[in-house]
């Protein structure tokens, strides 16, 4: 049985990049493509420029993009500054999204445009809902909690576009408090005001994560075709918040921060708050924590999570996110590959998929558009 998501697909409008132009971005001096809303398949040899294009699409949303690169790293060697421009379709409307860097050497900053108007980069939030899975994420369940928090917070951005701004405000306040403490400043009013803000933003972050986890948990518990059914749980401030009034948790966090000033100053870190939380994932049929599963099972769990999140976003927000699946197909057996393609088709998602072998995508046939990437040049490939 192919996996389907009829309830989601019926109501949701898939987001899609309808034109993409990259300028002095990574290995590209300039390239343009005009995809339709079907999935995009990029095939070509190693080093051809496939992942670079996925990274360009990831820059249409706020943040560091799928390689978490420094801004200047993305500028083509020998060029001055990169730019990515796109026409993005969602809710039946088309928005011109532009981003890149500006500023003198050493002072570069990210710039963004929406329909020709300059906006702050955070205002790209929610405009192009995009989710990715890359080979670098294979260690997601094995590495420290920060990686999983980032993964979860990125997914939440699709569900709740204010989540990123909230996290930025929290981080900024936390840094300021810690700097005061390290400098030996014990101004109670100043510290108290910062702690009150940290508690407010911190509980808002935890609440957004909790809401996301509850909704995603339902989809991921059911399993998606041959992808494993899983259980997700949050550990940390979110646990305290579950079933308790937010104000109570906020007051608790504020008091905890106040009482922990000396210890935080000594440790040089903030020991309480949503920046310490973790996302725990369990493989249900194995009855094992994700980190105890095989590499292949971990990958399958990640795909299940991303697909469940996409279903949830489609159902709850009415927009199916763009999925950037770098080198995913090569690591799946034929059954799972077929199921992935069927689920993408059922969701109607414009999934961007890369691989070195064209035959991996044969099962997609006309359901996708295919491009050959060679030496950072794109050629539409016919699949008839
Ligand atoms: N800033 C840059 N300037 C020029 N070339 C770059 C830059 N960053 C990466 N590259 C080149 O891009 C190529 C890798 O492209 P990539 O998209 O990762 O290939 P693949 O098709 O294997 O996914 C490499 O040859 C690398 O040297
Ligand atoms: Mg690659």
From TrEMBL:
Residues 17-350 form the RecF/RecN/SMC N-terminal domain. Keywords: ATP-binding, Cytoplasm, DNA damage, DNA repair, DNA replication, DNA-binding, Nucleotide-binding, SOS response. GO terms for biological process: DNA replication; DNA synthesis involved in DNA repair; double-strand break repair; SOS response. It comes from the Bacteria. One of its GO terms (cellular component) is cytoplasm. Its main location: cytoplasm. It is found in: Cytoplasm. ATP binds at residues 44-51. The keyword Chloroplast does not apply. The keyword ATP-binding applies. Gene3D superfamilies: P-loop containing nucleotide triphosphate hydrolases, RecF/RecN/SMC, N-terminal domain. GO terms for molecular function: ATP binding; single-stranded DNA binding. The RecF protein is involved in DNA metabolism; it is required for DNA replication and normal SOS inducibility. RecF binds preferentially to single-stranded, linear DNA. It also seems to bind ATP. Belongs to the RecF family. This is DNA replication and repair protein RecF. It comes from Minwuia thermotolerans. The lineage of its organism: Bacteria, Pseudomonadati, Pseudomonadota, Alphaproteobacteria, Minwuiales. The gene is recF.
